[in-house]
Amino acid sequence: MSPERLVHMANQIGTFFRSQGADKAVPGIAEHLKKFWDPRMRKAIVAHLDAGGEGLAPDVRAAVEALRPPAE
User: Is residue 31 in a domain?
Assistant: First the structure.
């Protein structure tokens, strides 16, 4: 799946969670991506963020950042 498509999908998820309030948006987006996105999709959106994250809304960007595996 193209990075542009993943960005579009992630931003749509962000639009939904923004309607529930700013305090719930980032955790809600991150949880949705963890539960419903294939691991390859999550890896690809994190790689897109690493490459600059063009097109990602700020709250979606923060949620994708939360998907990173913990540093060892």
Answer: yes
